[in-house]
Structures are given as C-alpha cells and as structure tokens.
Design goal:
Layout (H helix, E strand, L loop, with lengths): L7 H18 L4 H8 L3 H9 L7 H11 L3 H9 L7
Helix pairs in contact: 1-3, 1-5, 2-3, 2-4
Pfam family, one: HTH_31
Organism: Gordonia prachuapensis
Protein name: Helix-turn-helix transcriptional regulator
C-alpha cells in the first residue's frame, strides 16, 4: 500500500508542531527530553526539524508529558489555532 503524499496543510502543521516542541524544550537537551519521552534523540530531532511531519499520537503525548506542556496546546498548534503562552 502506497501512502498518499502529505497535503500542504499537513506539512505546515508538522512544521508548526516541530517549532513549538523545539521552543518548549528551551535549554533542555534533545537527549534528555527524548529519554524522558521514551523515544530516540534522532526521532525528536526529526520532529523538531520538520523531517518527521506526522509523529504518532502516542509520541506527541509522550513529548507533551516530558516537556510538561498540555497536549491540548500541541493539538491547537497542529490544527492551526493560536498558541496561548503561559
């Protein structure tokens, strides 16, 4: 089965998610956040850089917990809602 190409909206959503994760990580290392989330550092690098645009829901939830960010904030980023800081 061949996977359909991502739409421009899906690509933009993946890039927004990566940016918010990178920003939320702040001064924590990729290795530390990835370890706490139970994923490889390379997977986190790919998500943050936009090379992995559609991470699994479980991965997003694990990252939200690792970064202490409400998963709802990440969901809002993916659907294009304004991000509330604080």
């Amino acid at each position: 089965m061949v996977r359909a190409p991502l739409t421009p909206e899906q690509i933009a959503a993946g890039r927004r998610l990566g940016g918010v994760l990178r920003e939320s990580r702040a001064d924590r290392t990729v290795a530390d956040v990835a370890d706490r989330a139970g994923i490889s550092p390379e997977t986190l690098r790919k998500i943050e850089s936009g090379r992995l645009l559609t991470p699994s829901f479980a991965t997003v939830v694990a990252l939200a917990r690792s970064l202490e960010v409400p998963v709802e904030k990440l969901a809002d980023v993916v659907v294009g809602s304004p991000v509330q800081t604080g």
